[in-house]
Amino acid sequence: MRIGSRTLFRRSLFTALLLQITTILFAQSGDSVGTKPFDTFWTRPRTIPKIGVGIQDRAFLELGLYWHNIYKDPLIVASKGAYCTVDLFIDDSNLLLGPKVGYEFTAGIVGTAVDLTYFIDHNYDESGSNRESLVVTPKIGLTILGFADLFYGYQIPLSEVEITSIYRNRFSLVFNLNRDYFNLKEAPRKYRKAPKK
C-alpha cells in the first residue's frame, strides 16, 4: 500500500503532538510538595552524545557532542545548544570528513540549526592530495521535542574551492541523547540568581 506524502506528514505531526501531550502529562503528574504544577524552567546544560545518519549524494554518519539543555513549560518542550560533530562519508575511492560546529534550537515539533563545516576530501586525485572546503548549512525540519530531529539543510560554500562530489541538499536524522528527557520533573535545573533587595 502506497502512503502519500500528505498522509505521512499528518501521521508524523499527530505522533509528535501525542508525544508532546504525553510528556506534559507525565512531567506534571506526581508533583511533590514545594513544586508548582505548572513549573517553567531550563534544565542545566549537559554534554551529551549526538549521533545520526544522513544522505546527500551518498549516505553519511554524524558523530559528536552537544552542549544541550531543555526548556519545560506546561504547553511546550524546547531545547537549545551548541554542538561539535563530524560527518563521515565513505565510499570505494576516498574518505570525506566534515568536522563542524553549530547551534540548534527546537520548540515542540519544529527545529532549526546552522552549522559551519570544514570538509576534507582525502586522496581525491591520483597524486594523493587532499581538497578542502568550508561551507555553512542552515537547516530546518521536524523534531520530537529536540530528542530526534529530521532536518533538511542546504550547503552554502564559503571558500573558493568547492567539493562538487557532494550535493548541496542534505537530509539528516539525528538523535540527541539527553537522559533528562526521561524525567524532566527531576532534571537538574538552571537557576538564576535571585534579585538583590
Key structural traits:
197 residues, mainly beta, Porin, eight-stranded antiparallel barrel, globular
CATH class: Mainly Beta
From the 3D structure, determine the CATH topology.
Porin
Helix content: 10-25%
Q: What is the makeup of the main sheet?
A: 8 strands, antiparallel, barrel
Subunit organisation of the chains: single chain
List the total number of helices: 1
Number of strands: 10
Shape: globular
Question: Overview of this structure, please?
Answer:
The chain is mostly beta strands and 197 residues long. 12% of the residues lie in helices and 49% in strands. The longest helix is centred in the first third of the chain and has 24 residues, at 5-28.
List the helices and strands and how they pair.
Layout: H1 5-28, E1 41-42, E2 46-55, E3 59-72, E4 77-90, E5 95-107, E6 110-121, E7 131-144, E8 148-154, E9 156-157, E10 169-176
Antiparallel strand pairs: 1-3, 2-3, 2-10, 3-4, 4-5, 5-6, 6-7, 7-8, 7-9, 8-10
What's the quick description here?
With 197 residues, this protein is mainly beta. The protein is 12% helix and 49% strand.
